[in-house]
Specification:
This protein is mainly alpha-helical and 159 residues long. The chain is 75% helix and 3% strand. The protein has a two-stranded antiparallel ribbon with strand order 1-2. β1 and β2 form a beta hairpin. α2 packs antiparallel against α4 and α2 packs across α6. The protein is extended, with a radius of gyration of 21 Å. The chain starts with a helix and ends in a 7-residue tail after the last helix.
């Protein structure tokens, strides 16, 4: 009987040690990966909407015929989406206005999920988690936000 009890305690100790190692993963690393990963997703989407500095006719066509957002002119929606999918990822990569940029992209994600592709919730959920890591925990120390917070004593860019 003690052999079984000792075996369970050994497994519990090993499990506890593994959890202790995982607890040591810095938020800075998680936040940087989240920022770069989600920025790439939106940047690549934005690239499909432009040719040089121009929003393509095919992007406007998609907003007119496939996406059909309520209350928004398709031409305006295509241009706003192209701008947002380039501006906010750039800000996330450099770590400037990170929480606001992540919040804006989370809003876009919700619009896409609710009005455009409601069956794509597993993908959109993954995007939302990356964005929520940044919104809730900040962009981490590898960011302009962190530098500004340290320099000027503002709100911390890291929890």
């Amino acid at each position: 009987m003690s052999l079984t009890s000792d075996g369970h305690q050994g497994i519990a100790r090993k499990f506890g040690a593994a959890l202790h190692i995982l607890d040591r993963i810095p938020h800075d690393v998680v936040a940087l990966i989240a920022r770069l990963s989600i920025a790439a997703v939106f940047w690549q989407s934005g690239q499909t909407k432009v040719d040089g500095w121009q929003v393509t006719d095919s992007a406007v066509y998609l907003f007119e015929n496939e996406y059909r957002l309520p209350l928004v002119d398709p031409w305006l929606a295509a241009h706003a989406a192209a701008l947002a999918e380039h501006l906010f990822p750039l800000l996330l990569v450099i770590g400037f206005a990170s929480r606001l940029s992540a919040l804006a992209l989370l809003g876009m994600t919700l619009v896409i999920e609710i009005f455009v592709y409601p069956d794509a919730w597993p993908t959109h959920g993954t995007w939302a988690v990356c964005l929520l890591v940044i919104i809730a925990g900040g962009p981490g120390r590898a960011s302009i936000d962190h530098f500004i917070a340290r320099r000027f004593g503002g709100c911390s860019a890291r929890r």
